[in-house]
Amino acid sequence: AYRTDEGQPWVLPVVKKVEQMIANDNSLNHEYLPILGLPEFRANASRIALGDDSPAIKENRVGSVQSLGGTGALRIGAEFLRRWYNGNNNTATPVYVSAPSWENHNSVFMDAGFKDIRTYHYWDAAKRGLDLQGLLNDLEHAPEFSIFILHACAHNPTGTDPTPEQWKQIAAVMKRRSLFPFFDSAYQGFASGSLDKDAWAVRYFVSEGFELFCAQSFSKNFGLYNERVGNLTVVGKDADNVQRALSQMEKIVRTTWSNPPSQGARIVATTLSSPQLFDEWKGNVKTMADRVLLMRSELRSRLEALGTPGTWNHITEQIGMFSFTGLNPKQVEYMVKEKHIYLMASGRINMCGLTTKNLDYVAKSIHEAVTKIQ
Amino acid sequence: SSWWSHVEMGPPDPILGVTEAYKRDTNSKKMNLGVGAYRDDNGKPYVLNCVRKAEAMIASKKMDKEYLPIGGLADFTRASAELALGENSEAFKSGRYVTVQGISGTGCLRIGANFLHRFFKASRDVYLPKPSWGNHTPIFRDAGMQLQAYRYYDPKTCSLDFSGAVDDISKIPEKSIILLHACAHNPTGVDPRQEQWKELAAVVKKRNLLVYFDMAYQGFASGDINRDAWAVRYFIEQGLNIVLAQSFAKNMGLYGERVGAFTVICSDADEAKRVESQLKILIRPMYSNPPVNGARIASMILNTPDLRKEWLTEVKGMADRIISMRTQLVSNLKKEGSSHNWQHITDQIGMFCFTGLKPEQVERLIKEFSVYMTKDGRISVAGVTSGNVGYLAHAIHQVTK
């Protein structure tokens, strides 16, 4: 979760404003939303992902399912794919998850009934970057019709994203081999500060004619973590196919949570449908993204100034909330036990935990860990 | 071509579909007796005063939006358990239970169904009363369970087929799962009397069945939360370690906030902790953690004495209005000159009433009178007002005379 420079949670100012508007609106009640969610939320959420000028939206071949956070969107998508993709109830369709990935990806697809969950090469620990060759190789050799979970931006946990050129290569192989793209977009806007830039990969795939799913989370970019605001964007060949697909998703939703929670969706819908509030929101998002970018550059420059062994450009080349520092488990243990700095055994740090007050301490601690422990 | 070329158009949801058809109707006299959402005597949605107060209190605290734990808001789950089990419950006081927050009734039922599928190896069979809420079957099916039924509603008398129920239940294979509606049976409104509940508990105990209670109307049925939870509490006292799905959609009017609680009564606190850990493992890949808004409201109400008192009064108010509408409907039918016996309308309890109307009669009500209900003849009494009860009686009389 995002933290301010004071290390505190941050409720976005635009969210506070909109919540007050909602509280003051006596015409609002707590009635059930439709099964697929609040219509204004769904349309706006998908528009954010695909872009105002998206050909898919213009051609009316986009569907949306309001979901309980990004997790809920992934689960509904996974349940649908297991029932309807590549035959009927084909639990044998391989599902590929990046190595490493958010650990819940595996569980979501497993609990949705998929029996064959594999990894695809992603993180190159030696060069601390994307293992593009390994990735492309896995795409070439994956069985036709396999499902690939792609991180739209700000890869969790490595913070390492393909460049646009690399995405083009990935898309080309996926198209040729009929592989299904399932995007996980949890950080749109939060990664680079630009909604459009962070959605580039998803939009590129759409422009290349793919049918795809995109699980969107508004937890981070709206700071609405506990309201569980998410959206599954479905892009299909045409309106009729999307309509039928959505009618089946309704059935899946009905036995999972019946209909989604209204509070978070109202906040997002109100914000996205007002030009003024939308601008305010983009400003709030940029505030968060900029702080993280600043912490990255400050950490890197301190490590380089200290002469910490190794290269540290990956700290600023990586993007989003997380960074794979490259610290090994022993060095991590040192950080935790001796320096009381908490990070994952993988060496992943949450950049949001850095503040102007603790940068020096963290940099020095990393320096110590790297020089003292091999 | 598309990946989805072979995907069939799903049938419209029968219950929620009624509201959608109603919305399209332009008849000024139209009535929506479909979905089970409470309406005041003006036919309007009712936001409880205690809910508005709780919301104002929450807003003033300026709380953050950090993720809830996977199992939900602790103050809420504890208060929900106490509400269902009773503050003097041995099971509650000893801590031999686990309660997790769920996405209203449906979400709780699904978590429980998934939990049983994964950990209740003795049987795949879930026995539902005939009839039951339409969504029970697909929920359990999607969780990998098989559905069976026991006799429950007697269409000849529009009341409980008690001997049929006892007969069927006493033949259920041991260690099967039986689902019971705690109060205000949906869709029939027919509940066992307390002596009948006692007999059912004895049979269930004898057959060594796992009891799954669905309680969506505590307080909303009789107006008394303790009375409505009587069966749940009695079964636990009889030594049955039940599982329970609780919804706060109706009794707190928090429908769209998705507030629910799922409880497993365990042998001891240690077992409860182990069960809890497995419930979390089921929840995490479904939606990670539950929504906070409704749970905060419910928690504020249950845990603030003044608000709790106000809530109990408002819940009773809703229940009383429904009981009054039942009475008025019957008297209006008599006034219309109907010769049928409509006593079941006042005998039944809760939001729903199984009118006994046949599908052809229901279709006429919809087409000729713009009175919308589900095909099984179920009406939501909450949709009846003193302003339209006369029209409803007239319409029903026209299609049944």
Number of strands of chain B: 13
Work out the count of structural domains of chain A: 2
Q: So, CATH architecture of the largest domain in chain B? A: 3-Layer(aba) Sandwich
CATH structural architecture of the largest domain in chain A:
3-Layer(aba) Sandwich
Terminal CA distance of chain A: 31 Å
Shape descriptor of chain B reads globular
Say what oligomer this is: heterodimer
Family (chain A): Belongs to the class-I pyridoxal-phosphate-dependent aminotransferase family.
Pfam families (chain A): Aminotran_1_2
GO molecular function, one term (chain A): L-cysteine transaminase activity
Protein name (chain A): Aspartate aminotransferase
Q: Can you tell me about this structure?
A:
- The complex is a heterodimer of chains A (374) and B (401).
- With 374 residues, chain A is α/β, with parallel strands linked by helices.
- Chain A folds into 2 domains: 13-273, Type I PLP-dependent aspartate aminotransferase-like (Major domain) (Aspartate Aminotransferase, domain 2); 289-372, Aspartate Aminotransferase, domain 1, CATH 3.90.1150.10.
- Chain A has helices at residues 13-24, 39-50, 55-58, 69-84, 104-111, 132-141, 164-176, 195-198, 200-207, 239-254, 262-273, 275-306, 314-317, 329-339, 359-372, and strands at residues 62-68, 95-99, 117-121, 123-124, 129-130, 147-151, 180-185, 212-217, 229-235, 322-324, 348-350.
- Chain A has a 7-stranded mixed sheet.
- In chain A, strand 6 (147-151), helix 7 and strand 7 (180-185) form a beta-alpha-beta unit.
- In chain A, helix 2 crosses helix 11, helix 4 (69-84) crosses helix 10 and helix 12 (275-306) packs across helix 15.
- Chain A is globular, with a radius of gyration of 21 Å.
- Helix content of chain B is 47%, strand content 14%.
- Chain B has helices at 14-24, 49-61, 74-85, 90-94, 104-119, 136-142, 162-169, 194-206, 225-228, 230-237, 269-287, 293-303, 305-336, 343-347, 359-369, 389-400, and strands at residues 31-32, 97-103, 125-130, 146-151, 153-154, 159-160, 177-181, 210-215, 243-247, 259-265, 352-354, 371-372, 378-380.
- In chain B, helix 8 links the parallel strand 7 (177-181) and strand 8.
- The longest helix of chain B has 32 residues, at 305-336.
- Chain B is globular.
- Chains A and B meet through helix 1, helix 4, helix 5, helix 10 and helix 11 of A and helix 2, helix 5, helix 6 and helix 11 of B.
